[in-house]
Design brief:
globular; five-stranded mixed beta sheet; 13 strands; 23% strand; alpha/beta
Length: 330
């Protein structure tokens, strides 16, 4: 798909209470400075009373306000996240319920889970659905809580992840210069078990397997993931730009998933002439799973690093193992 005229009308975020790396290190007996040195994170946010639904609704309300759009003007809500409040019902229904007057409307609420790439995949899907008839405006929300699924003995993960939510209002806008230029996703399932939470599903069903905290904690084979990403990403980027009138160096701003310090450095090395255009929020927010990219997008717009009619590349990796990207004109 090329040049589908959709416009991001507004963005919003919600970040819970901030917690420093020093506090994390003190809590878990990690040497002072370890988090910033190895994970690249100085600060992150962690929930106290908040749920995924609560955070997603607050981010969505800010996006609606920024866009000067009313809830009655929304035709669909998409929750694009890797974490959730309950296995059932779906997370989009919970976000809608937490919205002010959300229960007064009956627009559809659906989920999309492509782990860390959920927002990018959701934006691609929304742009394909928006037609000015059935769907004129879609509210896309990523709300993530990772702090409850970490193994404290695993320093690599307990220092890396943060909680937060972000939302965008997207509209069909044939008269504007805003557009989605291209979206592309590939899956390399040889890495399916490199990022894993083993408990909670039907393979390790709770009735059949004794509870073990490690079984329900996030596991990551960081070195294998990075090796796979390094081997697949150059070819992916080449194929993405192969049929476009753009080179990656032409893009005004690149917003990668804030996976890790090593992951960000990998993307910057791939585009050495444009490394200064790469948006980085990892240090202040940690890895917020699918919310990382839209939080970074919101910050880029607020800081005027991304202005109207400029081009933006969203790109990242996700568990499974997947690589995805979307190029749009803001």
């Amino acid at each position: 798909m090329t040049d589908k005229n959709i416009r991001i009308e507004g963005t919003g975020i919600y970040l819970p209470e901030a917690i420093s790396s020093e506090a994390i290190e003190l809590k878990y007996g990690i040497p002072k400075g370890w988090s910033e040195k190895y994970s690249g994170v100085k600060n992150r946010h962690q929930v106290t009373h908040e749920s995924n639904g609560y955070m997603g609704a607050r981010a969505a309300e800010e996006a609606l306000e920024t866009a000067s759009v009313r809830l009655e003007d929304i035709d669909m809500l998409i929750s694009a996240s890797g974490s959730y409040d309950y296995p059932l019902p779906n997370q989009a229904s919970m976000i809608k319920h937490h919205l002010k007057k959300g229960d007064d409307y009956d627009f559809p609420a659906i989920d999309l889970d492509n782990t860390c790439l959920s927002f990018v995949a959701g934006l691609d899907m929304a742009s394909r659905m928006l037609d000015g008839k059935t769907y004129k405006r879609i509210l896309l929300v990523s709300s993530e809580i990772s702090s409850k699924g970490l193994d404290p003995s695993n320093w690599e993960t307990v220092t890396l992840f943060g909680d937060g939510a972000a939302a965008v209002v997207i509209t069909y806008s044939p008269s504007s210069n805003s557009s989605v230029i291209k979206g592309q996703f590939k899956n390399y399932s040889e890495g399916a078990f490199y990022s894993l939470i083993e408990g909670g599903g039907n393979v390790n069903y709770y009735d059949n397997v004794p509870f073990n905290k490690k079984l329900y904690s996030f596991k990551m084979k960081g070195k294998k993931l990075l090796r796979l990403a390094k081997s697949k990403s150059p070819a992916f980027v080449n194929s993405f730009f192969n049929d476009l009138d753009y080179a990656i160096e032409d893009i005004d701003i690149v917003i990668p998933h804030q996976a890790s310090r090593a992951g960000l450095e990998m993307f910057k090395r791939m585009i050495p002439k444009s490394s200064g255009k790469v948006m980085e929020t990892l240090s202040e927010n940690g890895n917020c799973i699918a919310a990382s990219i839209p939080i970074s997008l919101h910050i880029a717009i607020r800081q005027e690093k991304l202005k109207r009619e400029q081009t933006c590349l969203l790109i990242g990796t996700g568990a499974g193992f997947s690589i995805g990207a979307l190029l749009f004109r803001y």
